[in-house]
Write a structure and sequence with these properties.
single chain, about 325 residues, alpha/beta, D-Maltodextrin-Binding Protein, domain 2, 2 domains, 3-stranded antiparallel β-sheet, about 45% helix, about 20% strand
Length: about 325
Amino acid sequence: MKTWKSLVGALLAAASLASIAQSDYPNKPIKIIIPFGPGGATDNVARQLSVKLGEELKTSIVLDNRPGAAGNIAVDLAARATPDGYTLLLGNVSTNAINQWLYQNQLKTQPSDLTPITSVATVPSILVSSAKFPPNTVQELVAYGKAHPGEINHATAGSGSYAMIDMMAFERAAGLQMVHVPFKGGAGQYVMAQVANDVQISFTNASSVVELVRAGKLKALAVTGDSRLPLLAQVPTMAETGYKGIGSSGWQGLFAPAGTPAPIIQRLHQAVNKVLADKDVRESYSKMLILPLGSASPSGFAAFVRTDSERWKQLVTDLKITLD
């Protein structure tokens, strides 16, 4: 009896301590793991978010760039972290919707190992080329590619990234044969290779290339999405160039290790969405062509991720992409 009472007492004490810890959250710095290197869309989203989020939560936000393996390294680190709300992942469409279909036999973690908190932003992509590359339009690109099969290099943030899948869809639709050159460090790394014309084209998030386009170091041939971008109003959409449905906008969202207490998930959801409504944050994002995109609830974001994952599964199947 004494042993039973001692066990019950210990369990109640542990529950009480856990409750206190949750109500006191956060009481130390929060680390956000970023699956790509500096300069890419996910990194840009994180850096604009972190300062205001730290102010809202009254703690420091530490950003930890962990590029490599198409984002899977970062996902694994986040999934294995203690589920206490102090290690989070700023994932995106590639890491949290696509990779599960491309690396099924290689993944150490599954989608269920992470708990969705909230969407944060979406970023349209631009079909960009080196300023030194002759074609100036999508039509000229297609004509050049057909005349020079296998001579155009296209860059991505890695095998399996949504930009790679978009480019494969474009190749198939246009009847082109190009060479894929993946970059471990993401867009922040490969856009410099494009400026040098080491690689010629890419589908790249707008936030990473808009200033290079405006400076004349890269050429914007088309934008993804349903409408033109305000800062690049002269650039047509892919649909306007005759390739409707080709190209994606990449979403970013915040995730926690599975098992993170619901009150902490709710606290983070509330704080992030409050920050996304901040005028200064929205203006900063707007200058980089990033659209703030919160969610009504963690469960709503989770449903969105599931639906989007199924959409990408179908596209991966249709294009017969296998990376395992």
